[in-house]
Design brief:
heterodimer, A: alpha/beta, five-stranded parallel beta sheet, four-stranded antiparallel beta sheet, 12 strands, about 20% strand, disordered N terminus, B: about 450 residues, alpha+beta, five-stranded antiparallel beta sheet, five-stranded mixed beta sheet, 10 helices
Chain lengths: ~240, ~450
């Protein structure tokens, strides 16, 4: 199992050392798969199998992230989410759903969840989402200028500069770069980018992300500049200085 | 449940209806009969009193003017006439001068019930007794039994007509019930065959237009729909199984290689290749689940107004670089149109259509048009590639059907089925036509 395809280690995140995760999942295999992967990437994982116990722990202990399965014995996942929110907690919640993705997504997000993931999923997808959720600092969301190495993106003027060169981007390329820079050093999967940049909640069989990414790279990482956008094999893309 | 014929007949709706009709007829006739009886009886009584009063006046005049003797003679003549009144003339000394009337009532109007006379309630005999000027009295009476003959005749006619109407209603009900039962038997037989698994069973067509034949038609339409859906389900299960077998077999092979790998490096490479294949399998699963979800129709509850032209621009914008990098073009002509629907699903529908165009007409010029008039909103995607032969338009339109040549490409076939399902969910129609050259797919919403 040591060859599990997760890519979190690649971004080398200091925060993950202290990250505490509560996972509420009744399926033994899925639970083990997730817990093992998250622990290997340096996260502390508490695992409970019922919604009742999960809600109790989530509201009586401090967690950085909750991973909640939609279908649970005793108390279903959606009720857990609502219960956590009703207790006044803002802990980021990732919902795992099986079938009925459209319905569950809307119900889950309306109930107070922050992100959702449809089963079956690859661990790299889960890992990327957990990282993105945990470190979405409120301040960063409001920053008007994003900087990675010598790349500057001005969100108000909608301009991009690499060193002293102004770079002209198409609106969608700008959104793509903005999303990457908002999550600097965190892996963004293809699905996450489709959802956040294009608002697509389906899997286009074509290379939308890849094509846009290669165009963006051609404009950002040209000539002798050190490349900033990196492909993480089997996971997605990440922007970082080195 | 099986009934004996008589029981079944009694249980049939049309026969019960006929029985109710018959009962209503019966009650109506009885009410009419009773009404007529009373009306004629009281009319006869009124006429009798009038006749007696007139006779009394004329005889009193005669006695006053010409004396008792003339009156006796007059009464003698009058009581012999057919249907005559009855008389009794009493002398001042108290003995009867003339007349057969036996009664001796007090002066004024009185009525008498004769034994064995009338059958209905009410008086049988009306008597008027008036004193004479010189003493004595004159009594005049009418026996109402004389008028009863007519009443019995009317009543008799009523009973006959009522009985005939009753018989007619029962017979008509019986015939209607029998034909309905026969049609019902046809439907029941079909239902039993369907329950037994024969989805091709149909209610036989009938040239008549009754509610039963209408029901039969509805049932046939429903069966046709079920037949199609079940057929689709069978086909899609086979297709999915087929689609999964190839990548799963590859995974199996790659895992074999990993197990027997000579070095860690080659084992890792094999594992990565296996992962890619598994991703492909998961994509197919996701598409199938998505399709099932859309077909379930629950998304309709989330429909909201949206700008279709903006949605088209957004989706086209996403696909354009991809299309252009393969040497094609994508042009959008969209006038502002607002509809009610699910933005996520409509984006997927258009996305799938664009992917189809890219896949089957590589490097072609793709045009998306959005047009609205008073009757309909139409969104079309056309390419100038090889197109699909007109003969195959129909076939490719049916859900889950894929043309043989598109079987090679993964995910194909489900793409258009998903578009079709999304269109159905939005009450839109999908048509394929020839763009000469190329294929045009048109999605049309009726404007309500």
């Amino acid at each position: 199992m040591s060859s599990l395809p997760y890519a979190g280690g690649a971004s080398g995140i200091p925060e993950s050392q202290s990250m505490r995760i509560l996972m509420i999942e009744d399926d033994e295999q899925t639970g083990q798969y997730i817990a093992k992967g998250l622990r290997e990437s340096g996260k502390a994982v508490d695992w409970t199998r019922t919604g009742q116990d999960g809600l109790f722990r989530a509201t009586h202990d401090a967690y950085d992230i909750l991973i909640v399965d939609r279908m649970l014995p005793e108390l279903d996942g959606l009720s857990v989410v609502k219960g956590v929110r009703a207790a006044g907690l803002a802990t980021p919640i990732l919902i795992l759903t099986a079938m009925g993705a459209i319905e569950d997504r809307v119900a889950g997000l309306e109930g107070g969840a922050d992100d959702y993931l449809v089963k079956p999923f690859s661990f790299s997808e889960l890992h990327a989402r957990v990282n993105a959720l945990a470190r979405r600092a409120p301040l960063q969301e409001q920053e008007s200028v994003l900087v990675v190495a010598d790349l500057r993106l001005d969100r108000l003027r909608r301009t991009v500069k690499r060193g002293s060169d102004a770079i002209t981007l198409q609106p969608r390329e700008f959104r793509l770069l903005e999303e990457l820079m908002l999550n600097t050093e965190r892996v963004m999967t293809r699905t996450m980018l489709l959802e956040r940049v294009w608002d697509f909640h389906f899997d286009p069989g074509t290379n939308i992300v890849e094509t846009h990414m290669s165009r963006l790279r051609a404009k950002i990482d040209r000539g002798g500049d050190a490349p900033l956008i990196h492909t993480v094999r089997g996971a997605g893309y990440v922007i970082r200085a080195s | 449940m099986s009934f004996a014929p008589a029981e079944r007949l009694l249980a049939s709706t049309s026969f019960r209806l006929a029985l109710v009709c018959a009962a209503v007829i019966l009650v109506a006739f009885a009410a009419t009969g009773f009404g007529l009886w009373y009306v004629t009886k009281s009319a006869a009584e009124r006429a009798g009193r009038q006749r007696i009063a007139l006779e009394m006046e004329s005889l009193q005049d005669e006695i006053r003017d010409e004396g008792l003797g003339a009156a006796i003679a007059a009464i003698q003549t009058r009581q012999r006439a057919p249907g005559a009144l009855e008389y009794r003339l009493i002398a001042p000394d108290g003995h009867t001068l003339i007349g057969d009337l036996q009664a001796d009532p007090s002066p004024g109007w009185s009525t008498m019930y004769l034994p064995n006379a009338g059958r209905g309630p009410g008086p049988d005999l009306i008597i008027l007794r008036a004193p004479l000027a010189g003493g004595g009295a004159l009594l005049i009476a009418e026996d109402l039994e004389h008028t009863e003959g007519l009443r019995y005749e009317i009543l008799g006619t009523l009973i006959w007509v009522g009985a005939a109407a009753l018989t007619l209603a029962v017979v008509a009900g019986f015939i209607a019930a029998r034909s309905a039962l026969k049609q019902m038997d046809g439907i029941v037989t079909v239902m039993e065959r369907v329950s037994g698994g024969d989805l091709s069973a149909r209610v036989p067509a009938s040239p008549t237009r009754t509610d039963m034949t209408l029901l039969g038609k509805r049932i046939n339409a429903m069966l046709a729909q079920i037949d199609t859906l079940v057929g689709n389900l069978r086909r899609v299960s086979t297709d999915v199984a087929h689609d999964l077998r190839t990548p799963l077999a590859h995974v199996r092979q790659q895992l074999d290689d990993v197990a027997n790998a000579a070095s860690l490096e080659s084992a890792k490479a094999g594992a990565v290749a296996a992962q890619d294949k598994i991703d492909e399998v998961m994509r197919i699963f996701a598409a199938v689940l998505r399709l099932a979800e859309i077909e379930a129709g629950a998304a309709q509850s989330r429909f909201a107004p949206l700008q279709l032209d903006a949605l088209i621009e957004r989706v086209a914008d996403a696909y354009r670089p991809d299309i252009e990098s393969e040497g094609g073009t994508l042009t959008v002509y969209a006038s502002p149109v607002s509809i009610t629907g699910d933005a996520d699903l409509l984006a997927q529908a258009l996305g799938n259509l664009l992917e189809n165009a890219m896949r089957h007409a590589p490097a072609s010029d793709i045009t998306v048009r959005l047009h609205a008039d008073a009757a309909a909103v139409a969104m079309s995607v056309e390419d100038n590639g090889p197109g699909i032969p007109a003969a195959e338009h129909e076939r490719v339109m049916a859900p889950f059907v894929r043309l043989d040549r598109s079987r090679q490409s993964p995910g194909a076939g489900l793409g258009l089925s998903i578009v079709h399902a999304i269109a159905r969910l939005h009450n839109a129609q999908i048509r394929l036509n020839d763009a000469a050259p190329g294929l045009r797919v048109v999605m049309t919403w009726p404007v309500n």
